[in-house]
Amino acid sequence: MTVVALVAFVMIIGIGWIVSVVRRTRRSADSVAAGLNLLEIELDRRRAVIPDLVRAAVDADLDRAAVNQLVGARSLSAMMRDRRAELGARAGAENALSVALHEVLFDGRASGPLGWDFSSPATELDRIEHRVAGAVRVYNTQASSLASLADSPLSGPVVRLLGVRAPEVFAETADADTAWLRAPQHAA
């Protein structure tokens, strides 16, 4: 009777552990999806406010090259999202947008006092940039948590049985495939 009780006890512990891994995996996957959704919302909000800043920067005669760079970076960011590029490539485009945005904001603030048409979107974009940074931290933390769960030798098989894969983090990668961005070369 003690052997049967021991086997039953081990089976109950094993089933309980599997159930806890399944719950943790589903909760982590839901958190990753929510974190990515939050990040998408903030990035879309930033892309929506930038045209107001561009109009104000053009009206204020700010450095045209910096403004053009901002417009190009915004277009690249939108194109990467529309084409559902990998997160590493999208992070690179979003970083380029942030750099161009901060350059225009710095030029505008350094040129002296500007009207509300510049300061209003500039202030809003400062707030959005902070929220984007926070959303990236939230997503990357959740993605790393799920990745560690999927890569664990104990919980990994259960996670793979559920069909959950380790998500990418939202960080610029040096090996991001951007070959499709280059213009085709024509033979002379």
Description:
The structure is a single chain. With 188 residues, the chain is mainly α. It has a single domain (2-170), classed as de novo design (two linked rop proteins) (Up-down Bundle). It is 76% helix and 0% strand. It contains 5 helices and no strands. It has helices spanning 2-59, 64-82, 87-110, 116-151, 156-161. The chain starts with a helix and ends in a 27-residue tail after the last helix.
Provide the descriptors you would attach to this structure in a database record.
188 residues; mainly alpha; de novo design (two linked rop proteins)
Structural class: mainly alpha
Query: Which of globular, elongated, flat, extended, rod-shaped describes the shape?
Result: rod-shaped
SSE string: HHHHH
The helical percent reads over 70%
CATH superfamily: LemA-like domain
Q: The CATH topology is what?
A: de novo design (two linked rop proteins)
The appropriate CATH architecture is Up-down Bundle
What is the first-to-last residue Cα distance? 87 Å
Radius of gyration of CA atoms, rounded to a whole number: 24 Å
CATH class: Mainly Alpha
Stretches with pLDDT under 50, minimum 5 residues: 179-188
